[in-house]
Structures
1.
Amino acid sequence: MSCHGPAGPATTVETHHTPPDLNCTDCHNPMNPTGNWKHIKPTVDGAVIAFGTPTTAPTAIQYADEAGNGLCEVCHDTLTLTYYNSDGSGLPHNAGSICTTCHTHPTGFVPPSSVADVPHETITDCTLCHDDGTYVDGATLNNVKCLGCHGPAGPATTVETHHTPADLNCTDCHNPMNVTGTWKHVKPTVDGSLITFGTPTTAPAAGEYADGLGNGLCEVCHDTLTLDYYNSDGSGFPHNDGSVAQYVQPVIRIREDLYRQSYWQIHRMRR
Ligand code: HEC
Ligand code: HEC
Ligand code: HEC
Ligand code: HEC
Ligand code: HEC
Ligand code: HEC
Ligand code: HEC
């Protein structure tokens, strides 16, 4: 992937994302002539397959023939898929098509309906959020990806992550992939606790940030119980009780404040 990954010099592709990633070499043998298109192995998962020639693209039937012999069927031997299992079971589905026109290699062959929820649904380059191996439920994504758009140089609303000793991950709090039923795609389960947090169109109530009992979004994680205010067990003093802005803005502004403070300190030292 150092060559075929997003940063590499060669065609960018993704491995097949089934629950765990497959190996490139489950399908390809780039070392030897294979007689097949794109160095697809002549034997995949124990089954002999034909897949075009080095210079001729394969036909639709060589992807899937509904009998279980196509490249996109031979491995599917848990027989749990809706379509195209290796024993020929499963409904036909876009029969006669080149499967990879929809199940593309750069998205790891996952069904194309897997676009992120609104407002990220127009992002067709999935690797703007995902790294290899993160096409799974509950994935933790690299903040650098989100900040590519949400950082100061990006086109989207600029935000900052939560600054606790170490930065948190955006995906500790957000799930932009799926419909979450909450405000700003905040996850319905954060740090193992179920939370309510408004709806996609209704901002959350103050109590949903912190209810003083440890159930609010701004309480559930604070489980070292060392904070002055709002620990997850309900301990800690109340603090700007019932307010919204006071709780949220610091998430975004904490560092700005520090920056501003240190800027003036340095400025004064220089004088
Ligand atoms: C499930 C089987 C499978 C796996 C796993 C797989 N590939 Fe492929 N690969 C294919 C098929 C099929 C094609 C032919 C192109 C098509 O039909 O889209 C292909 C084509 C390619 C191409 C040519 C793309 C082009 O546009 O010319 C490259 C490069 C490639 N694969 C690299 C990789 C790498 C690197 C990995 C591992 C990260 C990988 N493949 C994993 C099946 C697979
Ligand atoms: C080297 C083995 C292998 C090959 C070749 C292969 N698959 Fe799969 N695929 C799997 C496995 C393993 C699963 C999990 C289900 C199972 O075991 O039956 C799976 C599941 C899937 C799923 C459903 C899960 C998901 O990721 O959403 C899709 C879609 C899929 N494969 C598409 C394809 C397509 C399209 C091709 C042909 C380009 C292909 N597969 C070729 C191994 C393979
Ligand atoms: C026109 C686009 C399109 C084409 C072409 C296409 N698929 Fe799909 N495929 C989808 C979509 C959308 C889904 C997810 C929704 C669904 O399950 O119907 C999907 C789902 C699947 C699944 C997962 C089903 C499951 O049980 O989770 C498999 C396996 C699959 N396709 C195999 C294939 C194979 C093999 C081919 C080639 C014959 C193919 N698809 C061609 C759009 C396509
Ligand atoms: C805005 C960022 C973003 C974009 C763009 C994005 N994803 Fe995701 N995706 C995520 C996050 C975050 C998760 C983990 C969701 C969770 O917590 O379960 C995820 C999870 C997934 C999963 C695991 C199943 C699920 O729905 O949770 C699949 C499959 C997936 N993404 C496929 C894709 C594909 C294919 C694309 C491109 C069409 C894409 N994603 C684009 C952020 C993104
Ligand atoms: C390719 C650019 C792009 C990437 C990458 C991206 N976003 Fe966004 N995001 C946007 C745009 C555009 C909007 C909508 C307008 C705005 O807020 O600027 C948005 C809006 C949001 C919103 C507020 C709206 C809502 O209902 O969710 C959240 C939360 C969000 N993004 C989180 C994330 C997270 C987390 C990641 C990384 C997993 C991410 N974004 C990656 C472009 C991007
Ligand atoms: C501690 C939890 C938490 C973390 C970590 C977090 N967010 Fe948020 N985010 C929120 C909350 C809560 C809101 C809703 C703010 C409000 O309206 O009160 C929000 C709102 C947003 C918005 C919408 C801003 C607007 O003005 O519409 C975007 C975009 C966003 N987050 C992106 C990100 C990105 C990107 C990261 C990682 C760099 C991130 N968030 C990390 C909790 C978090
Ligand atoms: C995903 C987990 C998580 C969520 C959600 C969360 N926090 Fe935190 N926060 C932490 C951790 C971890 C600490 C360190 C103290 C601890 O563990 O109890 C911390 C500490 C803090 C601190 C003191 C340290 C500092 O950086 O100055 C403030 C202030 C704070 N959080 C505000 C908030 C606010 C406001 C919200 C709601 C928008 C929130 N937190 C939601 C994880 C979280």
2.
Amino acid sequence: MSERNANPVSGQKCRLCLKSDVQGREHLPPRAATNRGPVQISFIKGFSDDRDIEIEVLDSEDGFWLRALCERCNTHILGARLDSAYADFVRQFADAVGLVDSRGRMFVNLENVYPARIIKRMYAMLLCAMPEQNPKWEDLRRFARLRDQILSGHFPDVHLYRNISDTGRIVPWCVVGELFTGRGRWAVAEVSWPPVGIVFSFQGGEPLESMEKITDWGQAKFHDREDVRLAVPQLRVEHHHPLGFGSREEVERWRERAGVVWLLADIGPHSGPTGISTLWKPS
Ligand SMILES: [Zn+2]
């Protein structure tokens, strides 16, 4: 990834501590969670005067990464405390047993995993993916940063699906609504890289209901280990649209049929690859 595009946030503060300047590369998700090797990145840069989306394509030699953290948070907090627990979770998630329930959801058996460390790592990814620092996220920053902090205050739920495509997608906070169906609207953000897809949301209802909600992992203690059984929908990611699952054609049909609107958060001129939506896949 070129320095120009990978580092649009010069002078910004670390997304976790808000104290030190950002430094180094933060892989999103972590490198150890299979986000490595040559990838092609396609992100929405903005909109032209005639409302077409403008897409920029970049190549990276080593996974998808951003400059989002200071050295201390990157190395001593995420790297030392959380990354190996998260990588183990992803490894086990990838080895799902192949059994499917009546709703088409695949069972995933996790043995002896660290729920608190995994969900702290997930919220840290959400914070890194946000193009701007938001004072409202202080509860989440404390939770991700402090070892013994349990989840409390202002936070979105965490929903899991199985990403069965070869494509990752990161969408920062936005609102997706269906005008024609009465299913309402959802404030969501998404961090998805095969095999783990994560949707953060303040609302429930479909399509989130069939996903596995694991927010209560935030109540576990740092050293707690557990066996966990999940049932997760198997979904393809090919389109930039948040909550757009299936082939590109299927997502376009959903948008037309349901009258889908996608409301973007305010983004600054230097918000970079994750300002609106990013897709990437092995090249
Ligand atoms: Zn920091």
